[in-house]
Amino acid sequence: MIRDLSFEIAVIGGSLGGCLAAYSAAKSGKKVVLTEESDWIGGQLTSQAVPPDEHRWIEQFGCTKTYRKFRNDVRGYYRSNYPLTSDAMKNDRLDIGNSSVSRIAHEPKVSLQLLTTLLAPYVSNGSLTVMTCFKAVRAEVSEDEIQSVELQHTGTKQQVKIKAEYFLDGTDVGELLPLTGTEYVTGAEAKEETGEPSALDRTEPLDMQPVTHVAAIDYIEGEDHTIEKPASYEFWKGFIPSYSPHSILSWYGPDSSTGKEKKFGMFDKDDDGLFALWSYRRIIDPSNFEKGFFKGDLTLLNWPQNDYFLGPIYEVTDEEAERHKKGAKELTLSFLYWLQTEAPRPDGGEGYPGIRLRPDVTGTEDGLAKAPYIRESRRIKSQFRVDETHISANCRDGAPKFFDTVGVGCYHIDLHITTVTNTFYYDNSYPFEIPLGAFIPVRMKNLIPACKNIGTTHLTNGCFRLHPVEWNIGEVAGYLAAMSLDTGKRPAEIRNEPELLQTFQNHLIQQGIEIHWPHITSI
Fold this sequence. Notes:
The protein is α/β, with parallel strands linked by helices. It has helices spanning 16-27, 65-81, 86-90, 108-124, 176-180, 191-194, 233-237, 318-341, 359-362, 388-391, 461-464, 467-487, 491-496, 498-510, and strands at 3-6, 9-12, 32-36, 128-132, 134-142, 145-153, 159-163, 166-169, 184-185, 211-212, 215-219, 252-255, 260-265, 275-276, 282-284, 298-301, 307-308, 355-357, 379-380, 405-409, 413-415, 425-427, 432-435, 447-449.
């Protein structure tokens, strides 16, 4: 028997953007449901175990008020609950992990706690219902409007039908788009399709950025935590990627900024002039804590060598998707086993058996994240599409100011090695604005994308996929749905009618969403 539930706004998918869409919609006084396939909300910050990757000005400006509060709350959480050193306690810009990729790297479960706390008031007052472990399986559509979405519990197989006036797609791969018949694109577009100088000569819908199945690890010198040899270890040991003459299980990995391979190192203390991978995504640096509290660094194994690019995990059959998901896990475990047993050390030895998986960090039995890290989603065909010519430093002198801007972001165009052409790409970009036109499907009336599924291209997705931008997108999506309900106007009308657009932009500003970059005279 299918149980029917009715809401004003349904956010399907508890990604980072999905969480913020539910937050802003509930804050606007709407009756909201947030559903999530995993038992953890938060997407890349939590179930995918990817710490924030941000732009250089993040401590001063360039994010929403709520994202800034989140960053401050991360630091506050550690100050309130952990035995920090006196220096760490006084550091206004405390970086828990002192990682090279983030100024605020931290444990996934801390993000989960803070996101749950963010939503808690609206759960308590009845505005927001959170349903974890539910996956969208089908949808009912009539006259370009979604009438309902049917969900199935991943454990019990219980089925629930959600009815709502607006549906927001907060899934990491844009699951609602094929279910509802919404027009979308995947993979790499051709030059003639987008006009982008760096696009491929032909369309490759399955040529997507790789997924990475992250593992949480620490290192205990003198101990042996070697895992059982993975079944596919010999395959990966013998696998020579197209960009390199070396095995993928080596110190060599792709370097997007040069289009060639690069040799990496292990620890900062090795001081061999190589980029140290151990501190790359480190989430706990023991030097921030009282002596002896942590036995060693805690880091996340999300390195160039465990990007899985043998195939995509969507737009293929269920059987093939599961094969690639399993392959991504096997690659990470194989790389871990190589690190433990065969990795050349600076002292001439082999292997670091003291590397230990940490299931308690990821909330899983095996120490791997609950879900693979998704860099690229299905993307709606939108009223306005952001392409390379809008943001690349090689295409123009400064990024355009969009009349319909609803946020800001900044990150270089960064594409990891792809699943068909095995290409990777890097380009400098300007600080950019996020146009509302990229939120508006060309046809569907009551579907709003809430994360990486807005109207970007394969190339521009490479800089719209990061944490602060996805947070901003989700927050705007919730406010957009709420204003549509309040005014009786569709999102397309809000975008295209000047007075409505101005009202919406003013409301975003009042809510602490920056819609323009300040004039930057120096870096």
